[in-house]
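Design request, tokens follow.
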């Protein structure tokens, strides 16, 4: 492969990487949430029993919520991420909390009240 083709391919890959990793205002609101594992609602106990939601602030993951493994309770796990990193070894913390079974989970921008409840 000649030298110019090599650099053209490198430039092309660089542009693709930037496009994939870039965050536009349309894709990521100032404070928003995205469902990344489907929310499952159990009608026998009228509560969410599983599913996962990611909360973003300025296009960076700040909180992950895990609604459980199918057990019919109102306990969820909140992972508080550090600089977009949600692993314990990166300094993230995990805590359990009770949630309102009647809350609906809708993707997109969140209210200031919801942001304050979550601490973001």
């Amino acid at each position: 492969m000649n030298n110019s083709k090599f650099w053209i391919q490198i430039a092309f890959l660089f542009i693709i990487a930037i496009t994939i990793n870039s965050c536009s205002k349309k894709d990521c609101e100032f404070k928003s949430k995205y469902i990344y594992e489907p929310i499952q609602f159990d009608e026998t106990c009228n509560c969410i029993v599983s599913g996962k939601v990611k909360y973003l602030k300025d296009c960076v993951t700040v909180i992950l919520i895990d609604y459980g493994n199918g057990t019919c309770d109102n306990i969820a796990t909140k992972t508080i991420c550090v600089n977009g990193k949600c692993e314990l070894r990166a300094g993230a913390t995990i805590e359990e909390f009770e949630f309102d079974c009647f809350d609906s989970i809708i993707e997109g921008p969140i209210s200031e009240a919801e942001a304050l409840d979550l601490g973001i």
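Comment from the thread starter after seeing the answer: thanks! The chain has two helices and six strands.
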